[in-house]
Design a protein that fits this description.
Layout lengths: L9 H4 L3 H10 L16 H32 L4 H28 L3 H22 L2 H12 L1 H4 L4 H16 L6 H31 L2 E3 L10 H13 L12 E3 L3 H10 L3 H12 L10 H17 L5 H6 L6 H34 L8 H16 L3 H5 L4 H16 L1 E5 L12 E7 L5 E10 L10 E4 L12 H6 L27 H12 L7 E8 L12 H18 L21 H7 L5 H7 L11 H9 L5 H18 L11 H12 L15 H4 L9 H19 L4 H18 L5 H9 L6 H6 L5
Parallel strand pairs: 5-7
Antiparallel strand pairs: 1-2, 3-4, 4-5, 6-7
Helix pairs in contact: 3-4, 3-5, 3-6, 4-5, 4-20, 5-9, 6-8, 9-13, 11-12, 11-16, 15-16, 15-25, 18-23, 21-22, 21-29, 22-28, 25-26, 29-30
Length: 770
């Protein structure tokens, strides 16, 4: 028996295949071409598209469930019979959902947000039905338990089978009806809480605006920051705003915030920015603090329904590390990082006291970044504003593409075809093998901050996958819809019941038609969406990057490459799919380390006016500053990761100890100074409350062990040894970037490095040990 799905109103959306085809022709979310029609996607398209795709894939699921039941009876069960239709459903649904979610994250607006919130319950309901299909689970179990069938599977197929069985168990397929109904209710609640959490951050960020008319108040800020602030003021209606005369509009996007606390001589301004940022989304209508408790409580109940002691154990059931191993890594790194952080804190305090002549000066939280930057300038003779002039975005992008060619043998060129874009600043690039004109992948790049409209941070969204599937409903599913209305409202059926509503009747002809159509599906060209949030061009200057901006770009491009260069032949293990979450950051963190390679850096660091390369002594100073205050960086990362694990394991969400108390306790344990009493950064910690890193933030450090060890392979052969670097680069492409989730991360790492990863390279590379 299957699980009932109630999708109210679907009958009003579709009455025939002809109507479905007509709707698809006018709805950009349902376009099946290689490039989405981003610029045409409006709020009014969301609901019709979701209704249509769910109706069509519901018919496909009906057919699949009946087909698998019959296949088990007549002995015709096979891997393809299960996974071809699952892949088709999964990737087609993801294609529509990804477009909706992407537009929501980069072009937020009240109408679009409202449309997404209307459809979220519908999408979640179908996901629950798919993830709790007894027919699919029974077929998976039969595949797994039948030695003759299992022996025919490749390593990638076996791995996908094992992962899918685990995911079905974690989706509640084995729960009794009452518990399943509760499980489904919790999933829907968590989905809404996550949406509310994200929206609160966006709205809170958008609400903070500080208009400054007196330039003296902004003393110390770089010209690039002033130019962006003046442009924001102009966009807000102050038409005469200029970089030199203002007024200047300061916002809480991270680039502006970091500039204020690092460069503003005005201590009150730094304090105001610090307090606002560290308390973002923690008051009034955008208060995320109570939402955090609700998320934790619901996650805890969900895990216990599945038989786990806590959410951390559930989360880590699909990762490389165990709970103990994750904690052990954090504590091991902390043994070297914390003493280094304490030394760093003593040094910056002494520097500030000497610079001010105040021997009793006590640095406050909003002073630390400012004086750390002054100390960096004094030690390494580097001014960030001067360095920015050598890092125009276009030049850094060109250098990144040159590195990709050097390491991986690929060419990257702008797409000349005029494409529909969600914003005029977006660019599209094609990737081809070196010497070939045939694209093997594409990616979009959206790189400028749009506070209040675009989520902060940087990320890559895998979009079209390298897999055999079709971005349309199958002919068999459309034909099956003729048999009657899909999933009409039923007074006695709920998403958690065992009652089956049969809307599609299986026939041998339909089954054969469906299988033939699936087997003939073309291999799709992968596509990714790369998003960053750096300062846009302003005051007649191009977008000028900080060294951190360049690192972030390289990092995200590493994610993109793993999706775009995959060669896995099993669709649901291609690219980033199927990779354990604590290994996902491996290629991205390896890629970012190339910023500090001499040949790479000098290849992209060109003055935006003259085109001259960065002076050799400046690069030597940049390399020297690479490990500056790494103790503080690591201890803060450990603080966040440890907080995350404790929140999802030992905290009673309804008890007296609050999540903020846990954060402060871990801050006290690992950081070299006390936490700010009003610090509510958990209200702006989207990684773990809305971004997929719940009980998994340790993954950054876990993967960095792998990435640093892998990078050291290049260092060992000499990064100026071109032949050796290219040979290693191709090996990295043909293992780490190609295998995707078809092999375990440990196996992939050993294929590249020849052994298991070691922690010592991480500590040494970051200057924490000799």
């Amino acid at each position: 028996m299957g699980v009932v799905v109630l999708l109210l109103g679907l009958a009003a959306c579709l009455h025939s295949p002809a109507a479905a085809a007509a709707a698809a022709a006018v709805n950009p979310l349902l376009e099946s071409g290689p490039f989405p029609k981003w610029g045409e996607i409006k709020a009014e398209h969301v609901l019709p598209a979701v209704k249509q795709v769910l109706a069509e894939e519901s018919a496909s699921l009906d057919l699949l469930e009946q087909d698998l039941a019959r296949a088990q009876k007549d002995g015709s069960l096979s891997f393809d019979r299960v996974f071809l239709p699952i892949t088709q459903m999964r990737l087609r649904l993801d294609g529509v959902n990804s477009q909706i979610d992407h537009v929501s994250s980069v072009m937020d607006s009240p109408p679009f947000r409202a449309a997404v919130e209307v459809t979220n319950p519908m999408r979640t309901t179908f996901e629950l039905r798919l993830g709790q299909s007894k027919a699919i689970y029974d077929a998976l179990t039969a595949l797994n338990n039948t030695a003759a069938l299992r022996s025919q599977l490749s390593g990638a197929q076996l791995r996908l089978l094992d992962m899918t069985l685990r995911d079905y168990r974690n989706s509640g397929v084995g729960l009794p009806p009452a518990q399943r109904a509760r499980f489904n209710s919790i999933i829907k609640t968590l989905q809404q809480l996550s949406t509310n959490y994200t929206n609160n951050i966006l709205d809170s960020t958008k609400a903070f605006k500080m208009l400054v008319a007196d330039k003296k108040q902004l003393a110390g800020l770089e010209q690039s920051t002033l130019a962006v602030a003046a442009q924001k003021a102009k966009d807000a209606g102050h038409k005469n705003a200029t970089t030199d005369k203002g007024p200047w509009l300061l916002t809480l996007d991270y680039s502006t915030y970091a500039a204020i606390v690092s460069f503003a001589k005005n201590r009150d301004l730094r304090k105001k920015a610090y307090m606002a940022y560290r308390s973002l989304a923690s008051t009034g209508k955008t208060d995320n603090v109570p939402i955090i408790r609700q998320i934790l409580a619901n996650r805890q109940e969900l895990s216990r329904l599945l038989g786990y002691p806590n959410y951390a154990e559930q989360s880590l059931s699909g990762k490389m590390a165990t709970f103990t191993e994750a904690n052990d890594l954090l504590n091991k790194v902390a043994k070297d990082a914390r003493p280094a952080a304490i030394r760093e804190e003593e040094q910056v305090t002494a520097f500030a006291r000497n610079a001010t002549g105040n021997a009793s000066l006590q640095l406050q939280w909003w002073d630390k970044s400012f004086w750390a930057e002054r100390q960096r300038e004094a030690l390494f003779k580097i001014r960030q504003e001067e360095l920015r002039e050598y890092l125009p975005l276009d030049s850094v992008m060109a250098g990144l593409f040159k590195l990709a060619k050097r390491l991986y043998g690929i060419d990257i060129k702008p797409v000349q075809q005029k494409l529909s874009l969600w914003h005029p600043d977006v660019k599209v690039f094609a990737i081809s093998d070196e010497g070939s004109s045939q694209p093997i992948a594409y990616f979009y790049a959206d790189q400028y901050a749009r506070p209040g409209q675009k989520q902060s941070g940087a990320w890559v969204s895998p979009f079209w996958d390298r897999a055999r599937y079709v971005r349309q409903a199958s002919p068999a599913a459309l034909q099956a819809q003729k048999q009657g209305t899909l999933y009409a409202a039923s007074s006695n059926a709920t998403a958690g019941s065992n009652k089956t509503v049969v809307a599609v009747q299986w026939t041998p002809a339909l089954a054969q038609q469906q299988q033939a159509w699936l087997k003939a599906a073309p291999l799709q060209v992968p596509l990714a969406l790369l998003v960053t949030n750096q300062n846009p061009p302003a005051d007649g200057k191009p977008s000028l990057m900080s060294i951190d901006d360049a690192e972030t770009l390289f990092h995200e491009f590493g994610h993109a490459l793993q999706h775009l260069l995959t060669r896995s032949e099993v669709g649901l293990t291609a690219g980033m799919r199927g990779i354990e979450w604590d290994a996902v950051e491996f290629p991205s963190q390896m890629q970012e380390k190339w910023v500090y390679d001499n040949k790479t850096f000098n290849g992209f660091a060109k003055h935006y006016k003259t085109g001259k390369p960065v002076p050799s002594d400046m690069f030597a100073k940049i390399q020297g500053s690479q490990t500056y205050r790494k103790g503080n960086s690591f201890t803060y990362q450990i603080t966040l990761a440890s907080t995350d694990l404790l929140l999802h394991s030992s905290l009673d969400p309804k008890g007296k100890t609050s999540p903020l108390d846990v954060f402060r306790s871990q801050f006290n344990e690992f950081m070299p100074y006390k936490p700010f009493p009003g610090d509510k950064m958990l209200a702006n910690f989207g990684h773990i409350f809305s971004g997929g890193y719940g009980a998994g933030y340790y993954s950054y450090m876990w993967a960095d062990v792998m990435s640093t060890d892998a990078f050291m392979a290049f260092v060992e052969v000499g990064t100026d040894n071109e032949a050796a670097v290219q040979k290693l680069g191709r090996r990295f492409r043909n293992s780490v970037l190609s295998d995707g989730g078809s092999l375990s991360p440990n196996t992939v790492f050993k294929d590249f490095r020849g052994r298991a990863p070691q922690v010592q390279p991480l500590l040494k590379y970051n200057g924490l040990t000799k």
